Each structure stands twice: as structure tokens, then as C-alpha cells.
Amino acid sequence: MALARSRPLAFGMGYSLLKTAGCDLMVQKIVEKRENIDWKRNLAFGTFGFFYLGGIQYAIYVPLFSRLFPGAASFAAKSVADKLKDPKGIRELFYQVFLDQCVHHPFLYFPVFYMIKDFVTSDTPNPVAAVEEYSSNMNEDLIALWKIWVPSTFLNFALMPMHLRIPWVATTSLIWTCILSSMRGVHHVPSRGSATRSLARACLLTACALARVPSRR
Predict the structure, then answer these.
(1) Which among 197, 187, 212, 181 has a CA at the least distance from the CA of 30?
(2) Which element (helix H / strand E) includes 25?
(3) Are 199 and 187 in contact (CB under 8 A)?
(4) How far, in Å, CA of 203 to CA of 176, rounded?
(5) Is 214 in a helix, a strand, or coil?
(6) Which of 209, 210, 180, 56 is CA-nearest to residue 119?
(7) pLDDT in tens, 66-80
(8) How far apart are CA 75 and CA 70, in angstroms?
(9) Residue 205 in contact with residue 196, Cβ under 8 Å?
């Protein structure tokens, strides 16, 4: 963890790159049973992990939240007993979770994700149509997202030092995606097409590991 402490941005971007690209490779080989890896797709997803998940999310979770909530780092370092005696810190913890889950993800993360998905899968990318697609799926996406990421985000902001916030997010996503891959394998669903669509949807909702997404018809 020395590198994460000394160079948190570089560590978070590299970790997110390896995790996102690795999960896509796993999905292509294990779930989709591809004989030939789609390296263009993998590169696109790795790039998303590197720049957005590792870079932009770092800027949100560390510099921005440190300015908005200057007591966040000291609160995370306290013992549980001391946290319970800090009502201001508890309020700021809820504010951070609210901003992340109810502002960041609905209005920044998901639109960017849908636009990148459209860019990767469509012969004629259309960012407006991609955002419209997200709008039609917003309620379902967010409800499923919150089931996983609200508890994880509470733990992250309550317990993790600032330099470990991005690795926590990436690790949580990696573990969950591995579980999904096991649950959504081709032997557990009627057909491979429905399996990969379900996994792609689930990976979208968990927000970090990008699985197969069908091309727009």
C-alpha cells in the first residue's frame, strides 16, 4: 500500500485499468466463450477504467470531497466509538454518500458510460441517442446500483483513508463481477445470448466491469 499512499492517482488509474480490462477479458473468455478476443473492445473498456474510473472518480472522491468535507479524512481515521460521538462527521458521511449516489452516478457516470457503450458498439455513434437510452433505463439502473453501492459507499467513506477510496471501489466491483460471472454462466440460463445480455446489464449496474453489450439495431 506504499504506492497507493505515495501516488494515489497513478495507483488508482492503473488498478482500475487492470481490473476493468481483466473483467472484460474474463467475460469474453468464460461467459461468451469467445475463441478470439475482441481487443478493440477490451482497449475501449480499459481506457474507460483508466481515465474515468481511476481518474475522474479520484478527482471526485479525493480532491473535491476533501474540499467540500474537510473533516472527511480525519473522520475516516477515527475508531468506530469516536465516529459515533461525532455527529458532524456522521452528517458529512451521509452527504458524501448522497452526492456520490444521487448526483455523481445519475448525472455523470451513467451518461458517460452509455456514450462509451454506444461508441464501442455502434457503427454510427450518437451521444444524444445514448443518453436517451439511459433515460429510459434510469430508474431500473439506479435501483439496482443502489442495492450494491450504497452499503459499499458508506463503508468506503466511513472507513477508508482517502488514498484507498478508488482501490476500494475497484475491488468491490471486481468481487461482485466475479460473482455475477459465476451466477450468469451459460449453463444457468436458457441461451448464451440471454446470458451475455444479463451479464452486460449487471456489469453496467455495478459500474466498473464492462461486459458484452449488444449493438444498437
Answers:
(1) 181
(2) helix 8-26
(3) no
(4) 9
(5) coil
(6) 210
(7) 899 999 999 999 999
(8) 10
(9) no
Q: Which residues contact 215 (CB under 8 A, 6 or more apart)?
A: 121, 122, 123
* Helical (H) or strand (E) element with 119: helix 110-121
Give the pTM.
0.69
CA 58 from centroid of its chain's CA atoms = 12
Q: 176-181 — which CB contacts under 8 Å span 24+ positions?
A: 176/148, 176/206, 177/23, 177/26, 177/203, 177/206, 177/208, 177/209, 177/211, 178/23, 178/26, 180/206, 181/26, 181/27, 181/30, 181/31
pLDDT tens readout for residues 124-166? 889 999 899 899 989 888 887 888 889 999 999 999 988 788 7
* Set of cell numbers at residue 152: 459499499
In three-state secondary structure terms, 52 is helix
User: What interhelical angle do 192-206 and 127-159 show, nearest 10?
Assistant: 60
Angle at 194 between CA 189 and CA 196, to 5 degrees: 100
Residues, the chain? 217
Euclidean distance between CA atoms 32 and 194, whole angstroms: 11
